[in-house]
Design a protein that fits this description.
Layout: H1 4-14, E1 17-25, E2 29-37, E3 45-51, E4 54-62, E5 68-73, H2 74-77, E6 83-90, E7 93-94, E8 97-99, H3 101-107, E9 112-114, E10 117-124, E11 126-132, E12 143-151, E13 154-159, E14 170-176, E15 179-187, E16 193-196, E17 205-213, E18 216-222, E19 230-231, E20 235-242, E21 245-252, E22 254-255, E23 259-264, E24 269-275, E25 286-292, E26 299-303, E27 305-307, E28 310-316, H4 317-320, E29 327-334, E30 339-343, H5 351-354, E31 355-360, E32 363-371, E33 377-382, E34 388-394, E35 397-402, E36 411-419, E37 425-429, E38 433-437, H6 443-446, E39 452-462, E40 467-472, E41 487-492, E42 498-505, E43 511-518, E44 532-539, H7 548-559, E45 563-568, H8 575-578, E46 584-586, H9 590-598, E47 599-604, E48 627-630, E49 654-657, H10 660-668, E50 678-680, E51 697-700, H11 711-715, H12 718-726, H13 730-739, E52 743-745, H14 752-758, E53 766-768, H15 776-782, E54 783-788, H16 793-799, E55 804-807, H17 811-814, H18 823-826, E56 830-832, H19 835-847, H20 868-880
Parallel strand pairs: 1-8, 12-18, 22-30, 44-45, 44-47, 45-46, 47-48, 48-49, 49-50, 51-52, 51-54, 52-53, 54-55, 55-56
Antiparallel strand pairs: 1-2, 2-5, 3-4, 3-6, 4-5, 6-7, 6-11, 9-10, 10-11, 12-13, 13-16, 14-15, 14-17, 15-16, 17-18, 17-21, 19-20, 20-21, 23-24, 24-28, 25-26, 25-29, 27-28, 29-30, 29-33, 31-32, 32-33, 34-35, 35-38, 36-37, 36-39, 39-40, 39-43, 41-42, 42-43
Helix pairs in contact: 13-19
């Protein structure tokens, strides 16, 4: 039997490797050197440069050492708008390129300044070259600098610049791959000198330095050779000269304990002790343990007691389980030069010492203290997985199971049915395999509105009635369709009103019940299949009038002879602003039913269920005989959305988009629609995007996270903590105060209540916007800078020629099901991965007077005019086979 070590050695001898060892610039080329291993012979090598869909063959050669050089002409680099790829072929097969171990250390994915374009390289199967920070103006003209002094959290520079005016800050921009931050310099008394004293925004890695002059970034040229490093609160920083460019190498302060011991105490605490090495001991220092949650931004400190050559502290169990986010630990040293040091662990932690199973929140929780990849001390926490599912549906009888209940202490499991609007609920106790007949439940009494949705949950409650888990339950045999159902029942009440109930599922296979009512007084036509093609029913979500629906409706009323109607709920905050308009219907009224039965054309920004008082499905009042138009509520190309053609038995007849790439790449290729079903017209609301007065303030407008289903999940989510931390960020608040700017926070409609309750005591510069108090269109026009995460309203803002900054703190999870187009193609503006970087980009836009980034949006929005409604109208008329009436002949 061959051992694993032998197999590994054999693999090293047999597997062919093509590793990128380094790259460098000449006057004419960007050159990559690729080391080959285990290639026995070469018939042919060649390389291809791919920029979008265009391919150009580039020069490649085999060296005397049987390695490869690839030459990319400078003029090709100047054509890269977002990113390009270089494919290398060996013996007519595409080589799978990887990084040589020396590549990062030697070139540290070094930035390339090519004719005022900032490019970065990456090795990922191919060579990838990206045009970064196109929103900035870069200059190839260097600014000479010398290091005049180093100290704790202090870097003194002598710049070859005109005299620095006392009191005027000079910005040093530091770039690392996609990130950048601003280091503010204070002029020294000597001419041309400046001092940087705050490096807290720098993270681990190597940063290239530029100085900003008159809105242009000039690379710093460092004349000094080897330079000693200096310390800051969190890092050890070393200036580096490479090809005369000025870099800062940033490494975390390190603490190497001689030993680590962790014990679970009976009093609800964990005891952590560290053995100090002689070099780490300082007589005048005081120590504390810092526990940090990178995702939430929360941190806590615990003072150490020093005894002999070791440090001791206690951590309450309840602190560890306040959230389930991963945690990491640091050592705080308070002295004249305070430090926060990252643990550097060797063999101090052993597997038998670090795993615990404890009782917390009435359930068995697992903890694992471990050595992270960077050798620091980390903690992962997990709670028991709640196994449950509905296995079968027979009529209104549900057969299901629940497992792992023995992981919960003194508790009971229930199946709960909850009205999505009122949160009124019914529940029944369940155990192991269960059968529930919903006909025994008072479904009519649970309804908050005539048309609503009930969600199914499994709830674990303690004997005291405290809810410790609440999770949706899936249907194992789900075959999701928006316009179908698994079981259907009609119940008449005493007044002979018909209550229709359909068991369906969500896109994530979670079980739910959809219900609507046909009041006894409603007169149903004898032939519901007869539709009038001149009656158009328009809407958005049933409770809004702010989007493409209301804009198109008003345009139709004012400009055409179409019998157009707009439907909205009476308790909607938007109803007051449109109630005076002709043909506005209240949801569920006899007038609404009458129009819904007759309408030949249904136009909605969301699913058609938002504008019909009944289920939009085959067999319901002639629904299959209508023409269905998806007006959109944004520009597609980012998140995978629910509107795939496969999700419908009766899909949309026309799907509105804003560009040819959106049509072809997203809606046709990804979502399955045919060419004639996708219309490139632009969104109706774009007609009203007209900037009249220059705005000044900032709008913060994040979108939703579809994995959040309960209150508990929301309040413990990274999403909630990210934005509550942001609007309390001290640097951001200082910027707003300094420049007399307000930040208006408009959360997603599903998050409004949470943020409003959790952010009652805000800084005076942070303004909370109540849902419905102003339209989204008005918000976009009134603000100078938009901060969002993934919301498609960013396209509206960009269309107004104003800058957008994106906060991508959870980008991998948000796009866990894939992204429809590359990030660089649809996120037009600045992109931040963490809070400090986001604040730096906001600061940069403020400093530049809210100037827009220099971006080309023609690939995102084809028509930049006010004729979008006209185009939509013409295409729908074409669908109906009716002649189009010119605008000047219309109403």
């Amino acid at each position: 039997m061959i051992g694993s070590r032998t197999l590994k050695r054999m693999k090293n001898y047999l597997v062919k490797k093509a590793q990128v060892e380094r790259h460098y610039l000449t006057d004419e080329h960007l050159v990559f050197e690729i080391t080959l291993t285990n290639f026995l012979f070469f018939n042919e090598i060649h390389a291809e440069f791919w920029n979008d869909d265009e391919m150009i063959e580039v020069t490649s050669e085999l060296t005397d050492q049987d390695d490869i050089r690839v030459f990319i002409p400078i003029e090709l680099l100047e054509t890269i708008e977002t990113s390009a790829r270089v494919k290398v072929f060996i013996n007519n097969k595409a080589a799978w390129l990887t990084e040589h171990p020396s590549y990062k250390e030697g070139d540290f994915n070094e930035s390339l300044l090519v004719n005022e374009r900032y490019l970065t390289t990456r090795v990922k199967k191919n060579l990838q070259i990206s045009h970064r920070f196109s929103e900035f103006r870069f200059s190839g003209q260097e600014v000479y600098s010398e290091i005049e002094g180093l100290g704790y959290d202090r870097l003194a520079l002598d710049l070859d610049l005109p005299v620095l005016v006392s009191g005027n800050a000079t910005e040093i921009y530091a770039f690392k791959n996609r990130q950048f931050t601003i280091l503010h310099g204070e002029p020294a008394e000597e001419s041309g000198r400046m001092i940087v004293r705050d490096f807290s925004d720098l993270s681990t890695g190597i940063w290239r330095l530029f100085v900003q002059l008159d809105g242009t970034l000039h690379p710093l040229h460092l004349d000094t050779g080897a330079v000693e490093g200096f310390s800051s609160l969190h890092h050890r920083i070393r200036p580096i000269q490479r090809a005369n460019s000025f870099y800062l190498e940033v490494r975390p302060n390190a603490f190497r304990p001689d030993g680590v011991k962790i014990k679970n105490l009976d009093d609800g605490h964990f005891h952590l002790s560290l053995a100090l090495s002689p070099v780490d001991q300082a007589d005048d220092a005081e120590y504390a343990l810092l526990m940090d949650e990178p995702k939430s931004g929360r941190s806590r400190t615990y003072p150490f007691i020093k005894h002999d050559n070791s440090l001791h502290t206690h951590i309450p169990l309840e602190d560890l389980f306040q959230t389930l986010f991963a945690k990491r630990f640091f050592l705080i040293q308070q002295s004249e030069e305070p430090k926060v040091s990252q643990f550097r662990l060797g063999a101090q932690l052993r597997q038998t010492d670090v795993r615990f199973k404890v009782i917390a929140d009435s359930q068995y929780m697992k903890l694992r203290f471990y050595k992270r990849k960077d050798k620091s001390l980390g903690l992962k926490l997990s709670r028991p997985k709640l196994r449950k599912a509905i296995q079968d549906i027979d009529g209104f009888r549900l057969d299901g199971f629940i497992g792992s209940t023995d992981e919960f202490i003194d508790s009971t499991a229930y199946l709960l049915l909850e009205d999505r609007l009122s949160l009124e609920a019914r529940k029944i106790r369940i155990n192991d395999n269960f059968t529930i007949d919903l006909e025994d439940w008072d479904l009519i009494g649970l309804k908050s509105k005539e048309k609503t949705i009930f969600d199914f949950f499994v709830v674990i409650e303690t004997d005291n009635g405290d809810v410790i888990r609440k999770e949706k339950i899936k249907y194992r045999k789900a075959d999701y369709k928006k316009d179908n159902y698994y079981s259907y029942k009609v119940i008449r009440d005493a007044a002979q009103n018909e209550h229709h109930f359909m068991i369906t599922t969500t896109p994530f296979d979670n079980l739910k019940i959809e219900t609507f009512t046909i009041p006894a007084a409603i007169r149903i036509p004898e032939d519901v299949n007869v539709k009038d093609p001149n009656v158009w029913l328009v809407g958005e979500r049933s409770n809004t009038a702010q989007d493409n629906g209301i804009v198109l409706f008003q345009w139709l009323v004012e400009n055409t002879d179409v019998e157009a109607y707009y439907v909205i709920e009476e308790d909607s905050l938007d109803y007051a602003s449109i109630r005076h308009l002709e043909n506005v219907l209240l949801f569920g009224t006899p007038e609404h039913f009458d129009v819904a039965f007759r309408a030949g054309v249904l136009l909605c920004t969301h699913d058609i269920e938002n504008i019909l008082p009944y289920k939009p499905a085959r067999g319901f009042f002639g629904y299959e005989n209508t023409k269905r138009i998806f007006l959109q509520h944004g520009v597609l190309g980012r998140k995978n959305v629910e509107y795939h053609k496969r999700n419908y038995e009766l899909p949309f007849h026309q799907f509105v988009v804003s560009s040819e790439p959106e049509k072809e790449t997203v809606v046709m290729e990804e979502m399955g629609y045919a060419d004639e079903e996708v219309i490139v017209t632009g969104l109706a609301r774009f007609d009203r995007l007209v900037q009249q007065e220059p705005p000044r303030d900032i709008l913060l407008m994040p979108t939703w996270r579809d994995w959040i289903n309960t209150d508990e999940q929301f309040l413990a989510s990274e999403y909630y903590l990210a934005y509550t931390n942001l609007i309390q960020n001290e640097k951001l608040l200082a910027l707003l105060d300094e420049h007399t700017i307000d930040l208006y926070f408009y959360p997603h409609y599903r998050a409004q209540n949470y943020f409003q309750l959790g952010t009652r005591e805000l800084h005076e510069r942070i303004k909370f916007i109540q849902l419905g108090s102003v339209t989204v269109q008005q918000l976009l026009i009134r603000h100078a800078l938009l901060v969002t995460d993934y919301s498609s309203v960013s396209f509206d803002f960009t269309l107004l020629d104003k800058p957008v900054v994106y906060y991508h703190f959870d980008v991998e999870r948000f796009f866990r099901r894939g992204i429809l187009r590359p990030i660089d193609e649809t996120f037009i503006g600045g992109i931040a991965g963490h809070e400090e970087e986001l604040v730096s980009i906001i600061e940069d836009r403020i400093v530049h007077g809210f100037a827009n980034f220099d971006m080309d949006i023609t690939g995102i929005i084809k028509y930049q005019d006010q004729n979008n409604c006209q185009r939509i109208y013409e295409r729908v008329c074409g669908l109906l086979g009716e002649p189009v009436v010119e605008a000047d002949e219309m109403k």
